Amino acid sequence: MLVAAAVCPCPPLLVPEVAAGAAPEMEAARTACADALGVLAAARPDLLVVVGTAEEGGQGSFPQGTPGTFRGFGVDVDVRLGAAADAVPERPLPVSLAVGGWLLERTRWAGAPVEGLGVAQTLAPQRCAEIGRELAGRAGRVALLVMGDGSACRTLKAPGYLDERAAPFDAEAARALGAADLAALRALDPGLARELQAAGRAPWQVLAGAAESADLTGSLLYEDAPYGVCYLVATWS
Question: pLDDT of 142-161, one tens digit each?
């Protein structure tokens, strides 16, 4: 059963070495993420699953100890998912899960075992819900760390350029995550999310599926779009 969830953004810019000179601009987001992970730890789960989007080849399950890296962004920073494992998996973490692993290392996660799940951005809402229900049944007390960004179309300099539909989409996502509104999350349109480059849509809908029988309440800790990309942090408990 799902007992807690933390929703965090997944830009590599969260890692100060990647952000370099822009690192201070993300400090408020880092602080909110740390607070969100504190809620997960306080829930004392039996299992923590980190869920994030992944490209082809990075989809599927990742066991505890799976390594990830930010060397592709020009920095010598490596991470792993949770505690070290006896056998190191060969397949590395997708970027979203690597950011999740970095957050866990930064907050010195020492609670439940950790696993990862990479999902396709194109995953249908119904399938997202099914996966969420499966995750919630994995243990008596399950927590989710859900990695995903809102739209990338909030300004002229945003990765997806300015789209007038982006701000309303992000506002509804923020409201739904802050209120733990399952129906509203399930209603997020996959086509619109894809056009707005909102990578969090599928992971958020996985969360909605996992929480169907959990009766959790939500709290929005952070909402901003410093680079034209919407970053949200929320907790469910």
Answer: 999 999 999 999 999 999 99
